[in-house]
Design a protein that fits this description.
Low-confidence stretches of chain B: none
CATH superfamily of chain B: Amidase signature (AS) domain
Structural class of chain B: alpha/beta
Number of strands of chain A: 2
Helix content of chain A: 25-40%
Distance between the termini of chain A: 33 Å
Radius of gyration of chain B: 21 Å
Order of helices and strands of chain B: HHEHEHEHEHEEHEHEHHHHEHHEEH
Distance between the termini of chain B: 13 Å
CATH superfamily of one domain in chain A: Glu-tRNAGln amidotransferase C subunit, N-terminal domain
Number of strands of chain B: 11
Shape of chain B: globular
CATH architecture of chain B: Alpha-Beta Complex
Low-confidence stretches of chain A: none
Helix content of chain B: 25-40%
Structural class of chain A: mainly alpha
Oligomer: heterodimer
Number of helices of chain B: 15
Strand content of chain B: 5-15%
Largest sheet of chain A: 2 strands, antiparallel
Radius of gyration of chain A: 22 Å
CATH topology of chain B: Amidase signature (AS) enzymes
Strand content of chain A: under 5%
Strand order of the largest sheet of chain A: 1-2
């Protein structure tokens, strides 16, 4: 069971602001889903390898060659918040 | 001009009249739509068609219109993913599948409605509101590619592209009475498709018949080095369209006919299996004991991958940006304002499943269960060529019926998500009706065995008439 404090902590980790009232709502809905997930506990999996990906491809490499990419002004076209060819954001701390 | 046309009929029409006239006809139908299937209609479609008329084009889809799900980047058209957080974002580049379509001469009609970031089975989580099911306007079309399925069923596009992470092409195909294919993972490049869960999702076609699915696959499939999960394959899809299944062995996994299945759905699917038998195929029941754990495993993995993928929507480069006194506050407020409730739930659950102390209990556990599910499929498909089951246990539900309870909604994916966990190929074809609502038969094949899947689907279509039925409310 996750608590109100857990929801607040996950909200911070995921960088999603959650209001006091929403915290309670999320706690209830999230707990019902987590309870459903708990059914996996009944299945023994100690000796089973995890499957991260189904395709048998590993470390796909290519030659390190310079290729054409989108021009800088095109990359910046979807924001008003730009300066000197960079995205502008508020200071971190 | 007929309202519902196959791609072959559209091409014939273009020859008789022009690409411009055909495109104009579809735009007229879209203008009168009752289903909210499109979120953007392209203002360049007519221009594109005129260009093909003027200059000629020898591509396999010269002048043929198509609808595109709103999470597949088309340069110059909004790509909202059904979300407020991408408001105003216009991708400056084309997805790999769009490059392929344009090279083949296709005309992009517009972008179709979807559950926000493909998270849902009804289109109700879309920022633009739900689309309607053409068979009953009070019902959902399925999801998440609900807009694509609905416009194809309503005759507002001959065919469309969707994406399928846990059933998002096959579920709406079943609910709207059209054909929808989830290709083998790696068969179609995901470059330019907004990622939800990389290890599970594939772009897939939706159409009114199996042949058009194969036509589209021959255009969009193939290796692309910009997608690191892309796999080289020489599959020829249209060559698989053979009306003969005499050598075919079908497996029927009883776990896909579980508790809560609608009796008419169960009957329609068994009728379809017996139809195959009458055409010379053989069938046997197979058991897949770990399938009952697939849904939980699927959702943990999908949510975990989503939590990571959706971190990129932080107000920095595109779309919505809220005001905040520092970077953390700006990002937290932007995401609070921009994401809908279901998307937030999945990000929060995925973040939790990956967080310190819970990673092994949820994420790692789900990946191990995935191995067991995959082993079940490997074993079953070593004895038979294909598996057959209902695409969804029930027909389309009413708008608003399930949206409040996430678990009930997740259950819509119970028969489709195991296929994504195992990376298999799978198609949904119309196989009957219950109270005027379509039912889908799901045909499942080994990785890159789309030829067997398509051959079985094509043979069924040649010997039944479900795919010729049209929704009366939009006729």
């Amino acid at each position: 069971m996750i608590t109100k404090e857990d929801v607040e902590h996950i909200g911070w980790l995921a960088r999603i602001e959650i209001s006091e009232q929403e915290t309670v709502e999320y706690m209830e809905k999230l707990n019902s889903v987590l309870e459903y997930f708990g059914q996996l506990d009944e299945l023994p999996t100690e000796d089973i390898d995890p499957t991260y990906h189904v395709a048998e491809v590993y470390n796909v490499f290519r030659e390190d060659e310079v290729e054409e990419c989108l021009p800088q002004e095109t990359v910046l076209v979807n924001t008003e918040n730009k300066q000197d060819g960079a995205f502008r954001v508020p200071k971190i701390g | 001009m007929a309202k519902w046309m196959s791609v072959a009929q559209v091409k014939e029409k273009i020859k008789e009249s022009s690409a411009e006239e055909v495109t104009a006809r579809y735009l007229e139908l879209i203008g009168k739509s009752k289903i909210n299937g499109y979120v953007t209609v392209s203002d360049k479609a007519l221009e594109q068609a005129k260009k093909i008329d003027a200059e000629g084009h020898d591509g396999p889809l010269a002048g043929v219109p198509i609808a595109i799900k709103d999470n597949i980047s088309v340069a110059g058209l909004p790509n909202s993913c059904g979300s407020k957080i991408l408001e105003g974002y216009i991708p400056p580049f084309n997805a790999h599948v769009i490059e392929k379509l344009l090279a083949a001469g296709a005309v992009i009609l517009g972008k179709t409605n979807m559950d926000e970031f493909a998270m849902g089975s009804s289109t109700e989580t879309s920022h633009f509101g739900p689309s309607a099911n053409p068979w009953d306007l009070e019902r959902i079309p399925g999801g998440s590619s609900g807009g694509s399925a609905a416009v194809v069923a309503a005759g507002e596009a001959p065919f469309a592209l969707g994406s399928d992470t846990g059933g998002s092409v096959r579920c709406p195909a079943a609910f709207c009475g059209v054909v929808g294919l989830k290709p083998t993972h790696g068969a179609v490049s995901r470059y330019g498709v907004v990622a939800y869960a990389n290890s599970l999702e594939q772009v897939g076609p939706l159409a009114n018949n199996v042949e058009d699915i194969a036509v589209l696959m021959d255009v969009i499939a193939g290796y692309d080095r910009r997608d690191s999960t892309s796999i080289e394959s020489k599959t020829e899809y249209q060559k698989a369209l053979v009306d003969d299944i005499k050598d075919l062995k079908i497996g029927v996994p009883k776990e896909f006919f579980g508790e809560g299945i609608h009796p008419d759905v169960e009957k329609a699917v068994w009728d379809a299996i017996h139809k195959y038998e009458s055409l010379g195929a053989s069938w046997e029941e197979v058991s897949m004991p770990n399938i009952k754990y697939a849904l939980a495993s699927y959702y943990i993995i999908a949510m975990s991958e989503a939590a990571s993928n959706l971190a990129r929507f932080d107000g920095t480069r595109h779309g919505l940006r809220a005001n905040g006194e520092n970077w953390h506050a700006m990002v937290s407020k932007t995401r609070a304002e921009g994401f809908g409730t279901e998307t937030k739930r999945r990000i929060l659950l995925g973040t939790y499943a990956l967080s310190a102390g819970y990673h092994d209990k949820y994420y790692l556990k789900a990946l191990k269960v995935r191995t067991l599910v995959k082993q079940d499929f490997d074993k079953a498909l070593s004895k038979v060529n294909l598996l057959m089951a209902p695409t969804t246990p029930n027909p389309a539900f009413k708008i608003g019926e399930k949206i409040e309870d996430p678990l009930t909604l997740y259950l819509s994916d119970v028969n489709t998500c195991p296929i994504n966990l195992a990376g298999l190929s799978s198609i949904s074809v119309p196989c009957g009706f219950t109270d005027g609502l379509p039912i889908g038969l799901q045909i499942i094949g080994k990785p890159f065995d789309e030829p067997s899947v398509l051959r079985a689907a094509y043979t069924f279509e040649q010997n039944t008439d479900y795919h010729t039925k049209r929704p009366p409310e939009v006729a």
